[in-house]
Amino acid sequence: MEGKMSLIRARELRCKVIQTKRSKIQKPPKQESSDSDPPVLPRSKPETIEPEAVDISHSLFLSPAPQAAAPGNPIMEENQGSLSKPVAVMACITMTLFYVAILYAPTLILRLPPPQSFKNFMIRRFVCAAVSSVASVIFVPLILPISSLEASFLFGVYGIRSDHLWQAVVFPLFLTSLMYVGSLTLKSILLVNKWKQHRNQDGRPLFDCIKSTVLSFPSQMSSVASNVLFWRNFVVAPLTEELVFRACMIPLLLCGGFKAYNVIFVCPTFFSIAHLNHMMEIYSQQNYSLLKASMVVGLQLGYTVIFGSYASFLFIRTGNLVAPLVAHIFCNYMGLPVLFVQRKGLVSMAFVAGMISFAWLLFPITRPDLYNNRTNNCRCWQGYCSWS
């Protein structure tokens, strides 16, 4: 009996211990405050620090990613505008067809009599090309998502700028001349040989031959300036073609969502289409066979595609219309580059050296920061904000 009683008492003690433990867990003991504890102060609200204003022109020029529009900033509001790729392409096709079709409008639509001379014929075409260019310049702002129609703003969109003018002339002209090092070498050799022949015939020293050539230069320039082909090749054609096929079309394509490297190869397609009318002119006027006319025009189209890509590259990289314009004039003056001349290996070596130099300097000499200040307001569709 005594053993059973001891077991019962042990169980009761265990139950009391478990109950006391449970009560301690459920009711934590109160913390007694002492004089040594510091008083608890009420929490204060955190101060709000307003962000400082940021110059968006710097960040827009350096960052390729589009930024959110800031209120009251017309440039950032313009970047929110949308232009679909089909609309941009259709607008470029429309301008291309209009540029070619208006050349035949005086006789086919206006029913004007044919011009009596070649000079009158070319002057009529000059007027048609000018009308087409002006119409394209007016047409593009109606499609581009821009809010400001100020003249200075629109000139900036077209790359018509007065800042960084000497850079836009000198650097592209030097870069383009590297492709014609072989041609320039051949011209120099022929010029020296011509001076030697005059010296042998007249018995005059080489200095006198150079002096007579320099003195006759003004009269030669006056005769050239009076030639209508001079105005076509070096003034009207470069100016109107660069204005329509570069200044008007490239902003449309870039703003339509095309990447810059795609525009470089897409835009020359429209430029080459505008030269297809030469095939019918060569076939009908020069009595060429259809095959020969096709070969001549095919070579011309290939050259226009290559040059159009280069001119588009210059416009996108520099954001200045003067850069492709001076390159266009220089290429029209030089013609096709001379690759090889029989028994003149120096010309071929010069051509190879020039092309290597051209490829080496193509990107460094067309860096966008050479032609634009970082603080300038940047137009996203001009392409010099970023190269992406």
From TrEMBL:
InterPro entries: Rce1 (IPR039731), Rce1/LyrA-like_dom (IPR003675). Keywords: Endoplasmic reticulum, Hydrolase, Membrane, Protease, Transmembrane, Transmembrane helix. GO terms for biological process: CAAX-box protein processing. Its main location: endoplasmic reticulum. GO terms for molecular function: metalloendopeptidase activity. It is a multi-pass membrane protein. This is intramembrane prenyl-peptidase Rce1.
